[in-house]
Each structure stands twice: as C-alpha cells, then as structure tokens.
C-alpha cells in the first residue's frame, strides 16, 4: 500500500515520540514491580526473622522451665501451625514436614530442596527464584533455626499485572497516556502543516508538467518550504517566458514554411511522408500528393538519400497528370536526433518558368547567331545570283532563234528565282530592325491578316473560326511582328490542308502564374510526325518539298522578340500552335 506524504511524515514522528514515552512507562512500571517484589521479599524475610526470634524465646523459656525436647518440639509445632509458617525439621538426616505453603507443591519443593540445603548451612538464610506461573514472579525465602534444626519457608509471589502496581503507577500511566495523546495531536498538526504545502507544491509541479505554466501558488513562508515555493514560482515564470519565445519561433517557422515559394516535405526513415507545407501541396496538385508523378519522383530521391546517406541536388523533367512538361528542382538532406537518423527533409521548386525563360534566351541567342550567319550568307549569295540572272536574261534574248534552248534558260531562271526567295527569307530571318512595342488589339491583327488570305481560304475550301471572350485586354507587342507571325502560321496551315478543312483560333487569358494572353491556332490538316515535332522551328527544316524551312523559324524569332512563347502539339488530323503574349498593364 502506498503511503501519502502526510502519513510518511506522521508515522516516524509518532514512533519517535511514542516509543520513548512507552519506554519510560515500561521502565517505570518494571521498576515499581521490582521494588514491590523486593519489598515483599524483605517483608517475608522479616516475618521469618520475627518467627525465628519468637521460637528462640520459646526455646529459652522451655529450657529454663526444664521442658523435654519432645515437649519443646510440640510447642514449636503448635506455634508454627497457629501462625501458619511452613517449614520442616531435620532429624537424623530426614525431613519432617510442617504446615505447607499452598503455592509450593511437593514436586517443586523436592526440586529446590537440594539447593536450599546446600545454601542454608553456609548462610543460615537466603532466597531462591522459582519458576513463574501465569505472568508471575516467585521466590522462596528460607531461614534456619540451628538450635532446633528447623528450616522455615515463605513463598513470595507477585503478578506482573498486580493491582497494587496499577495503584502505584496510575499517575505515571495517566501522564504517559496524556503525553502520547498530545504527541499524536502535535504530530498530526506538524505532519499536516508540512504535508499540505508539499502536496500543494506537488500539484503545482504536476500542473506545470501538463502545460499550465501559470499555476496558482499562494504559499508565502520564510522557511525551506517557502524557499522551495519561490524557486518553483521562479521556475514556472522562466518556463512560461521560454515557452512564449518557443511559440513565437514556432509561429515564425510556420509562417515561413507556409509562405515560402519552396515546397517542403519531410519523411521518416522508411520514406513515409510526415509533413507537407502549402507550397508543396500547390506544386503536387493534391492535398496528400496521391497519384502525383512529381511526388513519386520526390519520394524516390528521398529513398535514395536514405540509402546513400548523403544529400542530393537534381533538376528533373517530369510530365504531370495533365501531360504538361514541368521542371522540378529537388534538394534533399538527412536530419537526425542526437546522431540517430530519423528521416529526410526535401525542398523542391517548380522551375518550369525559369527553364522556359532560359530556353527562350538560348533560342534567342541561337537565332541571333543564325541570323548573323544568314545575313552574311545572303549577302554573299545575292550578288552572284544577280549576275547569273542578268546573264540568263541576255542569253535568252540572244538565243531566241533556237526554241530548244529557251526551256533550259527558263529553268535556270526559275532556280535562280527560288534561290532569290530563299535569300529573301534569310534576310527576313536575320533582319534586326528595332521592335516597336505598343498596346495591340490582337483580334484586329488577326482579322486584318485573314483579310489578305480570304481568297486563298475560299479557293482551298478552308473554314475560318475564331473564339474569343469580349473585352480582351491588349497585348504588349509589335503590331507588324504579330501580323507576320499569324500570316506565316495561316500560310503554313494552308499548305497542310490540301483537301480543305478548318482553321480555328481560340483566344483566352492564360490561367497560369504569368499575366499573359493565350492564342491557340489549330488546323485539321495531316498533322506533324512525332519525330519531326522537336525540329519544326529549326531553320531550313521543312516537310514541304517546295518550302524553304524558314517560315516557322521566323515565327519563333518574332514571338521571342515580343517576350512571348510558342509551343506546338500535333496528332493526325489536328495540329495546334499555342502562343502566349504578355498583356499590356492598364493605366
């Protein structure tokens, strides 16, 4: 059984007080017992001495009166019987019994007699302890009367709980009881006065352990308990202040994790997700990341970090659930607790826009280099072509007399004209005229471009459709560049819909992170082979035998110069060019 603090204090106090009190009482009682017993033994010895003195007088009177030994013994025996004094005569080595003591039976007398006889001839008198019976203490007091060979006996017996003892010790017992009662009361008071504040302090410590760092502690004392209470009060105040600082740091860290543009994910040592911040959820696209290809890649890198036991830094190209290409930059690091590995913290960012800008810059640089090369090449080719064309024209006038030569010369002129068109395209691609950025109504540009091609659309059975919401904001671009862009795209669609079809435009605000306007140009032509898609913007690449391969390169260059992007997707029966252009800020 578990004892409370009050009993733990009270029991030792009670033992320390009651044991001495009881010890004093017991010692006092035993002292009184021994004193009364000694007094009784003294009275018995004195009684035997008085009997011996009376028998000696009787002996002297009998001798003076001339009584015989038999008469003297008779008178002695009568005296002893009359006074009820037990004993025995020693005659010729035999014992002749006198009145017996009722407390001493024959068997017990037989056992102690040898000791008495041995001692009595030496001392003449004495006492012998007997075996106690029923919480009693007994002694045999004896006396020798030598003239008559008479041994007188007296048994002294006293109970340990004798009433006379209680009479003698009643005040001592009363004082002891009163002392014990007072000791118990004082002990209870002391235990209560000590245990109550200790119990209060224990409850306060328990409350602090449960998180209540502002406990109600009203103990105001100057002793050690008060010092302990002050220490606990100071400790709780210090813990409260530290806890407030910790909460501020936690809130700050939470806000940082919540508002950072980097996704933060942590896993345990088995690779299971522990936490996700808001940015991570936005990048993954779902609350728990389930079914996200990005999450699969992130967790794969976290597992590799655990296996390799070193941090990783990678940028991976991933297709999300919508099939869009995204670039994810991932950093992983192990975290541990006292050198005991616990898991992995993963930070990742969607750097798709950054990579697109880098690709755009790379494309612009590449196109600039190609443009410079094309400008030089066009200059070097145009002059010889001009000379060759002039010479062919002269030869045509001189050789009119022979009709057989005219087709050959006309073929040479056609090839020269074809090379001239290629040089013109190269110069268009290489031209670095300044871009005049203004606020452009893109619908107006598209309708104006369509106007130039209406006859060709009708002749080739092309249906033109455009879908656009009302009140579209203007785009920030060069109007002539936009017209050239859409003209090239429309002409490209005409080439690949030889049997007619539909040219469809859709204009809408871009729902991504940038403030752009998106234009999708779709045709129902033969489509582009998957292996040709990555090359269609390359200069001189064309699937049209009669084309120069510069039209889409010029489109990409002009889109890049207007801070836009262009992408293409295709399948049999549907090719779509998607252009994004920045919106002109209002005001």
TrEMBL record:
Pfam families: HAMP, HATPase_c, HisKA, PAS. It comes from the Bacteria. Residues 192-244 form the HAMP domain. GO terms for cellular component: membrane. It is an enzyme of class 2 (transferase). One of its GO terms (molecular function) is phosphorelay sensor kinase activity. Its EC number is 2.7.13.3. It is found in: Membrane. It catalyses: ATP + protein L-histidine = ADP + protein N-phospho-L-histidine. GO terms for biological process: regulation of DNA-templated transcription. Keywords: ATP-binding, Kinase, Membrane, Nucleotide-binding, Phosphoprotein, Transferase, Transmembrane, Transmembrane helix, Two-component regulatory system. Residues 376-585 form the Histidine kinase domain. SMART domains: HAMP, HATPase_c, HisKA. Residues 249-285 form the PAS domain. The chain crosses the membrane at residues 12-31, 171-191. Residues 308-363 form the PAC domain. InterPro entries: HAMP_dom (IPR003660), HATPase_C_sf (IPR036890), HATPase_dom (IPR003594), His_kinase_dom (IPR005467), HisK_dim/P_dom (IPR003661), HisK_dim/P_sf (IPR036097), PAS (IPR000014), PAS-assoc_C (IPR000700). PANTHER family: PEROXIDE STRESS-ACTIVATED HISTIDINE KINASE MAK3, SENSOR HISTIDINE KINASE. This is histidine kinase. It comes from Desulfotruncus arcticus DSM 17038.
């Amino acid at each position: 059984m578990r004892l409370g603090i009050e009993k733990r204090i009270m029991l030792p106090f009670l033992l320390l007080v009651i044991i001495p009190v009881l010890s004093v009482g017991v010692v006092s009682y035993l002292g009184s017992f021994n004193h009364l017993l000694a007094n009784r033994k003294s009275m018995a010895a004195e009684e035997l001495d008085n009997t011996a003195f009376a028998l000696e007088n009787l002996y002297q009177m009998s001798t003076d009166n001339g009584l015989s030994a038999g008469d003297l013994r008779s008178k002695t025996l009568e005296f002893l019987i009359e006074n009820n004094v037990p004993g025995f005569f020693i005659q010729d080595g035999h014992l002749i019994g006198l009145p017996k003591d009722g407390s001493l039976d024959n068997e017990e007398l037989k056992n102690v007699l040898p000791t008495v006889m041995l001692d009595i001839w030496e001392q003449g008198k004495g006492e012998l302890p007997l075996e106690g019976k029923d919480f009693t203490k007994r002694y045999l007091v004896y006396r020798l009367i030598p003239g008559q060979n008479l041994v007188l006996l007296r048994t002294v017996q006293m109970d340990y709980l004798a009433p006379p003892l209680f009479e003698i010790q009643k005040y001592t017992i009363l004082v002891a009881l009163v002392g014990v009662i007072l000791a118990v009361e004082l002990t209870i008071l002391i235990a209560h006065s000590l245990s109550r504040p200790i119990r209060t302090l224990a409850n306060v410590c328990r409350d602090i352990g449960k998180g209540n760092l502002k406990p109600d502690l009203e103990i105001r004392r100057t002793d050690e308990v008060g010092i302990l209470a002050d220490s606990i009060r100071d400790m709780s105040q210090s813990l409260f202040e530290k806890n407030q600082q910790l909460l501020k740091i936690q809130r700050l860290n939470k806000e940082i994790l919540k508002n950072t543009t980097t996704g933060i994910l942590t896993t345990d040592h088995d690779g299971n997700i522990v936490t996700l911040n808001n940015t991570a959820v936005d990048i993954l696209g779902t609350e728990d990341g389930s079914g996200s290809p990005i999450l699969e890649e992130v967790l794969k890198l976290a597992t590799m970090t655990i296996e390799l036991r070193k941090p990783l830094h990678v940028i991976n190209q991933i297709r999300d659930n919508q099939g869009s290409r995204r670039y994810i930059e991932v950093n992983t690091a192990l975290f541990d607790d006292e050198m005991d590995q616990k898991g992995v913290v993963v930070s990742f960012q969607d750097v798709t826009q950054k990579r697109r800008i880098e690709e755009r810059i790379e494309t612009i640089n590449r196109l600039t280099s190609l443009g410079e090369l094309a400008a030089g090449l066009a200059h070097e080719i145009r002059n010889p072509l001009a000379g060759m064309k002039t010479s062919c024209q002269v030869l045509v006038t001189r050789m009119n007399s022979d009709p057989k030569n005219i087709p050959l010369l006309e073929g040479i002129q056609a090839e020269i004209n074809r090379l001239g068109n290629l040089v013109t395209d190269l110069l268009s691609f290489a031209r670095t005229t300044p871009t005049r950025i203004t606020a452009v109504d893109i619908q107006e540009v598209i309708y104006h471009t369509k106007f130039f091609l209406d006859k060709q659309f009708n002749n080739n059975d092309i249906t033109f459709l455009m879908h656009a919401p009302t009140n579209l904001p203007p785009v920030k671009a060069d109007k002539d560049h936009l017209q050239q862009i859409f003209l090239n795209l429309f002409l490209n669609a005409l080439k690949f819909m030889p049997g007619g079809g539909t040219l469809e435009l859709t204009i809408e605000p871009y729902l991504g992170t940038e403030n752009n306007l998106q234009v999708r140009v779709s045709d129902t032509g033969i489509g582009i082979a998957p292996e040709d898609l990555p090359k269609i913007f390359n200069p001189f690449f064309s699937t049209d035998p009669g084309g120069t391969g510069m039209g889409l390169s010029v489109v990409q260059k002009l889109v890049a110069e207007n801070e836009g992007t262009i992408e293409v997707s295709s399948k049999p029966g549907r090719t779509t060019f998607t252009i994004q252009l920045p919106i002109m800020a209002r005001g």
